[in-house]
Amino acid sequence: SQTIHQWPATLVQPVGSPLSLECTVEGTSNPNLYWYRQAAGRGLQLLFYSVGIGQISSEVPQNLSASRPQDRQFILSSKKLLLSDSGFYLCAWSRWGGSYEQYFGPGTRLTVT
Amino acid sequence: GENVEQHPSTLSVQEGDSAVIKCTYSDSASNYFPWYKQELGKGPQLIIDIRSNVGEKKDQRIAVTLNKTAKHFSLHITETQPEDSAVYFCAASMGGGSQGNLIFGKGTKLSVKP
Questions:
Q1: Helix or strand or coil: residue A43?
Q2: DSSP classification of residue A9
Q3: How far apart are CA B79 and CA B34, in angstroms?
Q4: What is the CA radius of gyration of chain A?
Q5: For residue B94, is pLDDT > 70?
Q6: Residue spans of alpha helices (H) in A1-113
Q7: What is the pLDDT of residues B36-74, one digit of tens each?
Q8: CA–CA dist A40, A44 (Å, integer)
Q9: What is the DSSP letter of A99?
Q10: How far apart are CA B104 and CA A51, in angstroms?
Q11: Closest C-alpha among A67, A64, A56 to residue A22
Q12: How far, in Å, CA of B60 to CA of A98, rounded?
């Protein structure tokens, strides 16, 4: 069976500090990978998606970047955090080859102070 | 681009009653409509989905209906239980791969009172 991991679970960072959130998927090969952000009381906003190693598409202009150094690893980064970067960050995966279903990880709660 | 509207934003029902959440979408090319349940502090969990070639799908106490002409779809939960309390999200997409990016509604907070 497939499992998706995210860490850390919670993070408190000062404004201007760097960020690195990690997501890994087990039990599948060449998944599509996604980063979403969920602001308090709002829906999920797609930030980045990746259909393969080194292939990253950005959905919205922002202070964040994403990388996929390995097949099942997806990293969300920032060089300098802003207060507006606070939120709940979710990683998701879907099967390669036109699969419809997306499965979410447990999320990382980021608070920028 | 696609836009998904979800109603109501909050819903309170008595245990044993039914709950209905409705979503509308704007892009007639959308062909996949999942529903997610999110408990506090956790990631969303896929609970049921429907594709555009089907009008209704049922899984035990939950069902989803789709009206392609009107571009709306609904989640129905029967015999609600306290553990059904959560935030429910609908979403729409145009298929897999790079076209499979989900557009989400803003969510419905369901409270089931014992």
A1: coil
A2: S
A3: 21
A4: 13
A5: yes
A6: none
A7: 999 999 999 999 999 988 899 999 999 999 999 999 999
A8: 10
A9: -
A10: 20
A11: A67
A12: 28
Provide the b/e sequence for B5-33 (b: ≥16 CB within 10 Å): ebbeeebebeeeeebbbbbbbeeeebbbb
The Cα B102–Cα B36 span in angstroms is 11
**What are A's interface residues with B at a Cβ cutoff of 8 A?**
6, 32, 34, 42-46, 49, 51, 57, 59, 90, 94, 97-107, 109
**Residue B99 reports pLDDT greater than 70:** no
Among the listed residues A31, A46, A27, the one whose alpha carbon sits nearest the alpha carbon of residue B93: A46
- Give the helix/strand (H/E) hosting B48: strand B45-51
Q: What does chain A come to in residues?
A: 113
Beta bridge partners of A44: A38
Site from A102, A104, A108 to mutate, B interface, most B CB atoms within 10 angstroms: A102
CB–CB of A44 and B89 under 8 A?
A: yes
* Residues B71 and B26 sit within 8 Å (Cβ to Cβ): yes
CB atoms within 10 A of CB B81: 12
User: Measured between alpha carbons, how far is B12 from B114 in angstroms, rounded to an integer?
Assistant: 11
